[in-house]
Each structure stands twice: as C-alpha cells, then as structure tokens.
Amino acid sequence: MQNPISFARIKLRLRVGVMMDYLFGRFSLVTYTVIGSIAFAALGLVNAMFFAPAVVLGALGLLGISDYTQKKRAVLGNYPLIGRFRFIFESIRPELRQYFWESDSDEIPYSRNQRAMVYQRAKGIMATRPFGSDQNMYAENFNWLNHSLLPSHIESKDFRIRVGEGDKSYDASVLNISGTSFGALSPPAIQSLSAGAKLGGFAHNTGEGSLSKYHEAGGGDTIWQISTGYFGCRKEDGQFDPDKFKDKASLDQVKMIEIKLSQGAKPGHGGMLMAPKVTPEIAEARGVPVYRDVISPARHSEFSTPNELLTFANKLRDLAGGKPVGIKLCIGHPWEIISIVRAMVDSGVVLDFITVDGSEGGTGAAPVEFTENIGSPLRDALIFVDNCLRGAGLRDRVKIAASGKIVSAYDIVRHCALGADWCNMARPFMFAVGCIQARDCASSRCPSGVATMDPKRYRVIDVEDRATRVFNFHKSSVETAGEMLEAAGLQHPSQLNRRHIVRRVSASKILLADQIYPRVEINALIDGKEVDDPRLAVYWSRVSGESFYPQDVAT
C-alpha cells in the first residue's frame, strides 16, 4: 500500500511544479501579461496614459488564455504565447536560411550564386567571379564544355530557330520565358515579363492561365498555352470553343500555340483555383465565372489517343492561320511519347515542336510527392525525346524546347548540346523581376510582389524598370552563351551535340556525353536498325496512333 506521507509529498511536488510553470515556466508569459494588464488598468484610474499599455497587455493576456484553452495546436496549448514564436520563425524560415545559413552553392532550389548572377545580369552589372571557381571539379557528375584551340568569332549572337512552316513560322530565340500564368504571378509581374520580351524580341509563354490583358499590355511575342481547362477558349461547360480560340489566336502577338499535356512540377495532376482567388480580372482572362471554383482536369477532353491529339493540334493550327503548334509534357511512360512520334510518322500530321519539361520544374503549389517523386528529370527526358525523333526521321521537322531549372548560359549550351533547339526559363526571369525565392507563392504573401494578387504587395513593382531587367538578363545570358560557343569554335547553338559536353563519372574516369548517351541514327527506327535505347527498341513496333498504350499493356 502506498505510504500516505509519500503520496502527500508527491501531490505537493506536483502542485509546486504547476505553480512554478505559472510563475517562471511555460505559462509565465500569460500570467504576467494578465497581472500587468490589471496593474496598468489600476494605474489608469490615476493617470489615463496607463490605459494604453493595459489594453495591449490585456489583449496579449486574452490571446494567451485562448492558446491555453484551445485543443487544435498542441504546442500553443502547452506553451501559450511563447509557442507563437515557432510559427513566426517557421513563416520566415526560407528567408533566414538563404540569408544566414545557406552556403553560396547550396541549390535550394537555386543557390545564392545562381540568384546573384541573375540579379547582376538583370541590373546590367557584369557577372564575374574573382579568385577562381568554388566548385569541386573532381566530384562525380561534374561536367563542362570542351573548348577549341581555334575559337570562332560570331558577328551576331541573336540566335534564332525557325519553328513551323510557311509564312506563319516563327523565328524563336534560343532563350524564352517559360509558362507563367496570370494569377500565379501578379499583374505588373506579367506585364514586366511581356514588355521585357518585346524589348528583346523573344517569347513569353502564357502558362495555363491564358492570354491576359497584362500580356497584351506588355506587347511581347506570346506562346499561348492551351491546358486541360481550355482557359480563354472554353464554353460554359468547360469544353473547347473553336470560335473563341480563333479570335484570340489571330492576334499578331500570339506567335505559337502550346498544348499542355503535363507539367514537370506536378505531372498527371490537375488543379483547382479556389473561388476567392477567381477575381474579375482572372475570370476575364480564363473565361470563367467570377468567384467560383475553377477546375483544371488532369487530362484533356478533346482527345484520348495519339491520332486524336494530332488531329486536335492540326485543328488549332488551321484555326490559328498556320501558326506553329506543339505540345508540352513531362516524360512518364516512355511508350506514350513513342506512340505520339509513331502516330506522326504513320499519319503525316507533324507537330511543330515539343517542349520537354523536367521534373525539377517549378510551380506555385503542388503536392510534395508529385514535385519530388513523379516525372523524368530534364536531361534524361530531353535525350530520350531527341533520340526518338531522330530514329523516326522527324528531328529536322520537330523542334525541341527544354525547360526545368535552367538558369545560366552554360545551362543553355549544355541542354542544346544534349538535344534542345532552345531553352525556356521561368524562375530566373522571376528573379529578374524581383523574386527573392521566399517560396511563399501560394499564400499571396509574396514579399516581393511577384507571386501575389494583393495590390498592396505588388504596388512596389515598376513595370518599366523590371521590363528592362528582364531584357538585360536575356541579352546577357544569350551573349554569354555565344561567347561559350566561340570558345568551342562554333557559330550557332544548332552545331552543338553531345560530344561537346564532358562528365566526370568517377574520380578517375571521364566520358563524353555521347558515350554516356549514344545518339540514335537518323531513321533507325523506320529502317528497323538496332538502337541502344531499350525503350525504343522494345516499344516502337508495339505502339500505334490508335492508343497511348502498347499492345500488351492494359489500361
């Protein structure tokens, strides 16, 4: 049986412990705010100046009591008022990390060195590095561009790639702005990007939010992205409206059409824009009712087979008066892209371009698992698509754009060497507009006014100034890419191929990229020749334009 004296001592200790919590421990802040408010209120009876601190302390005391009594947040219940510091520090954690603890080379997702380079080039400051490189050049996977003993000289570094055929073909820059939707980015941010594109003669992709009045106000060349929601060209029931599409696609500003099949940051995932965010301006751009939930389905309703996709693409091309039409996708099942390419060969209906979006691409919001664990990274996907088009004999007709965490001139050169005709960037251009990588894009609390629809926050963006920065960053990046081509003895990015890139695969072994990723011979798949990529070898003969699935794969 428990000793009564010992039991009494335990109870006393517990009571003393609780008392200490209220006086000196985790509840003490609430205790003293309540006592302080009462004390100042009493003094306020003598001098009214004491009422102000009484009100402040009283409010804090009531907040602390509320924290103590609530049951939803355990930390706040056990540490009233004090626990709120946790949430404050969590809210500014990205800023604290990048300014105080992150090293210059930590890529989370972009390093301080990368961001500094963009800021410098956007402001017209020479982005140089004194005292040598801070990279470990003997680390595995370190890669570089081989230079020549006979450097070239390039008269004009305004590199262009012809996309499409006929008088509506488009001479795209080697660097363009990737999909950035109005609504995800603020009105002045969208207008700044478009205006910067106009200054530099390059293109700005609308993203799935459609062509807004702010894209039009900027006046830059535009790639109109058509997503599963058919925003800007939809009927009331959400289906595609050819008349609305034709009206908008006929605008001279619209240079190309991109059918979005999937996105690197969240492939195979739809989305929903909540009713409070569907403002009159966003509703106008997307062609949806004001302040009602807007659904972006995970797949298109206009097609379900490769042949139907090509028919839809051809329909858009006709409605747009012959303007180039392509697709954007993140590579998943290899047989799906193979079936699209096979359908092009068999039908003769050919896409003008394919935008390969790597899984390292960014977005305002996506499930963590989709961002980190679904989809092919860019370089692997790019090489695969390039090989597939080469083997099918379509590489000269179908251009390839690469997007997904591309930031530097070397990134442009490297991805062009691996198979791209041009590159797209989104986040680096956002840096040029003022983004600081706070990673608070979905809350509308963006500290720089770039990724928010709060007028009080985006008022700080001067469109003319930020458009100039967008122009400067593009110009400097392309010129630096040109200087790298000169060092390699080349004249144009189209001359790059995989043998120009070298990778260290171990401490004692380096290989050319074309040794790691052998190029498929032109027409090899058509002629039935052997190819090194087992995906192409296995699935080419088992797919058709009738289905996205090979003959022996169930839906």
Record keyword descriptors for this entry.
single chain, 555 residues, alpha/beta, TIM Barrel, eight-stranded parallel beta sheet, three-stranded antiparallel beta sheet, 41% helix, 12% strand, globular
Characterization of this structure:
This protein has 555 residues and is an alpha/beta fold. The protein folds into two domains: 4-91, no CATH class; 160-542, TIM Barrel (Alpha-Beta Barrel). 41% of the residues lie in helices and 12% in strands. The strands form four sheets. An eight-stranded parallel sheet has the order 4-13-12-11-10-7-6-5. Strands 1-14-15 form a three-stranded antiparallel sheet. α13 (334-347) links the parallel β10 and β11. α7 (112-122) packs across α19 (463-487) and α16 (409-418) packs across α19. The radius of gyration is 29 Å and the shape is globular. The termini are far apart.
**What is the CATH domain class of the largest domain?**
Alpha Beta
Label the overall shape: globular
Number of helices: 21
How many domains? 2
* Helix percentage range: 40-55%
Structural class by SSE content: alpha/beta
CATH architecture of the largest domain: Alpha-Beta Barrel
For the biggest sheet, the summary is:
8 strands, parallel
Count of beta strands: 15
Distance between the termini: 70 Å
- Overall radius of gyration: 29 Å
CATH topology of the largest domain, anyone? Answer: TIM Barrel
Question: Quick check: average pLDDT?
Answer: 88
Query: Strand order across the biggest sheet?
Result: 4-13-12-11-10-7-6-5
- State the CATH superfamily name of the largest domain: Aldolase class I
Low-confidence stretches are none
DSSP strand (E) fraction?
5-15%
